[in-house]
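Hey L., structure's done. Input below.
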Amino acid sequence: MITAPYGSWQSPVTGASVTAAKMNLDSVVLDGADTYWLESRPQEKGRMVIMRQDAQGHTSQVTPAGFNVRNRVHEYGGGAYTVWNGEIYFCNDADQCIYRQSGDAVSLASPAVEGNSPTRRYADLVIDAHRRRLICILEDHRPSAGYAKLPDLEAVNSIASINLDNPEDLRIIVAGADFYASPALSPDGKSLAWLSWNHPNMPWDGTVLVIARFQKDGALSAPKLVAGSMIEVVFQPQWSPANILYFVSDRTGWGNLYAWKDGVVRPLFPASAEFGLPQWVFGQSTYGFGSECIVCAYTQGGIWHLASLDLVDGLIEIDLSITPEMQPYTEVSQLRVTGDSAPGAADARAVFIAASPVQNSELVGLDLTNGQLKVLKPQPLNVDAAYISQPQTIAFSTKNGQIAYAFYYPPHNPEFHAPVGTRPPLLVKSHGGPTSATSSQLSLKVQYWTSRGFAYVDVNYRGSTGYGRAYQEQLTSQWGVADVDDCIAAAQYLVANGLANPRQLAISGGSAGGYTTLCALTFHRVFQAGASHYGIGDLEALARDTHKFESRYLDKLVAAYPAEAHVYKERSPINFPEQMTCPTIFFQGLEDKVVLPNQAEAMVQALDDRLVPVAYVPFAGEQHGFRQAANMQRALEGEFYFYSRVFGFQPADNIEPVVIKNMKAR
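Output:
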């Protein structure tokens, strides 16, 4: 082995290899024997395309050139397509219209764009075959909309129907709430269930599940509340083949499965486990129906599991190893189930996206008749597995006697070791959201750091999901405080255990994680460097300028605005330039509508004014999160280069330099 300082190790996990492996799989749809899913194309500026695999295992791309399957409802999208008897209905990113694709023929399936820019957006597409129409979530940005909420003119959300034979025939069938999601049509076609919520709630604070009956003209009547409230979250309403409505509710403090029949709600399997997800995007699914059981995914302690659930045998875990030698999958998402699970059934299967600490995300099928798993869309490693650092789950003490959680990755490279008596630099990662969670699945971005000699800790700070509602609620009114304390506590825990160099601590995060990063760098003196990827420096600007979906998000995370504007000022790093003494690099998409570029630019200017080392890397054509291969690579390598200059080590790679202002003056 070669002896070399941490940070200077040569690694085959390059920025290019990380980007090449960055093909996201998403949005599984089952149609008869065919399986559909979305794939990203980083080399095509992040374009999303629909893929299809038939019963014989033949895989093909079905989205024609010139189309990008993506919607922007709530800015984050999701639920951007559906398939019905081989016909595909999908949202196109450029104009946000819905298109029908039959074979190679593509035609408009929603009203044409008015004017020069998209004003209507659609999500959660559902085919109502009984009435030859499409039911969907509609987000209308037209100031002239007859049902617009004047005078503020914020986007208007509703549930709409669109005639399959006349795309211009769009009708509002449910309206009045601020937000809607998950329209679910009963198998007999007689009823529709849906979720709704109002400001200031987010969908993980409280939603309501409503059901209504269709009249002969297709309108809905006699809406009835099934479950949910301002403080109860309902997720994924779905009808069973027997016309029973199921859903996930966190009424006990954990997101568990329930059934509703004849006006009575009953729990299926009470457990200290999460069967639901925070509804940042549309179209998520964690369960589906066989004839004798429900196939479901749930998470405990940051690890996902797959199981079958019935009233006789309870919850029976399904082995997530393809072979006995294989490490089980620890991440499961986009679970879809179809067919009869009885022995000898022709098409009894579940399909989902899975990953593990040593395996990229891949599409996996489960045969419900024999329990066999099969990889439908593999994503082989493009680097030697010997270079993979596997996560260790850690729990550590933090402020107020609480416990927080993280995945710790030690530096690992089979060809190198560091000089005796030295400790590695540490990168603390703060996930976005903040109502979200990090996971243990393989990320070559993480391995980029660990294979070069960095320790890496991915923190599930208080407020993260997957650990029960009580843990999530610990961030209430404490954003910028509790999350920062937990990231600091994670770093101090690793330093105290001899696993990190206390003089080479960095913190990094994107979006909400960028805010946590900037707070840690401004209000504390633990870290020596940091990176903000489209992060928030000014909470007041975020409260004033952000989009409708998150416009009241901070009411719960921080305080009511503008009534308690002083709290926003106290927690905004931009207001404390005299405390900004830590070298920081900023990465920002110039088309970001969630966190506007002026946030990063104001922070950069404040640091530059104080002659603090600072770098700014803007990306034209990028929004909230980077999708273009060249930009993703530049952000990864640029951050590593920045730390090499601040910490004083020599990278083994020939990385394109980043311009760092005031570096010589430091």
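Residues 391-647 form a domain with the Rossmann fold fold (CATH 3.40.50.1820). The radius of gyration is 25 Å.

-- N.
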